[in-house]
Amino acid sequence: MATSSIADKLAKLETKIAKREKTIADETKELDKDRAEYNKLYIMLLSDKYKLSGKDLFSAIESDLDELEKLRDGVVSEKDPVSSSSEKVGVVKGASADTARHSFPHTFTEVNEAEQKKGDNN
After folding, report:
1. CB 60 within 8 A of CB 67
2. Residue among 54, 48, 33 at smallest CA distance from 99
3. 66 close to 80: Cβ distance less than 8 angstroms
């Protein structure tokens, strides 16, 4: 009798876990879509704001992303001419600190950190 009760509890838990896993997968899929849409719209905003397009826009984003990563990692020295600029923060030169906080690279960084943490837990 105890075995049947345990088996019933296991079956219920398996069903509950499967439902939760499906819900999480669906939510993750929706979140990924929302992030992709956010990134697309943000790139469009940068394109309009700084009057850049195509390779020029992505080159500006990439070069400033590299600079932000160096600043985050503490690699840039004070003698580095790139870091001595008063425009240390921002995705594109001249962008405000508020723009950098909500920028594409910031989102990209959060996603990578979350994936790394998830990988560490497995």
Report:
1. no
2. 48
3. no
Q: Is the pTM of this model over 0.70?
A: no
What are the residue boundaries of the structural domains of the chain, listed by start? 2-121
The label of the residue with tokens 């070069």 reads 63
Look-up: residue for tokens 């896993």? 21
Helical spans, DSSP H, in 2-103 = 2-50, 54-73, 97-101
Per-residue pLDDT of the chain (122 residues; tens, 9 = 90+): 577 899 999 999 999 999 999 999 999 999 999 999 998 898 888 888 778 777 787 787 777 777 777 877 876 555 455 444 444 444 444 444 444 444 454 444 454 555 556 565 55
3-state class (DSSP) for residue 20 = helix
Type of residue at 71 = L
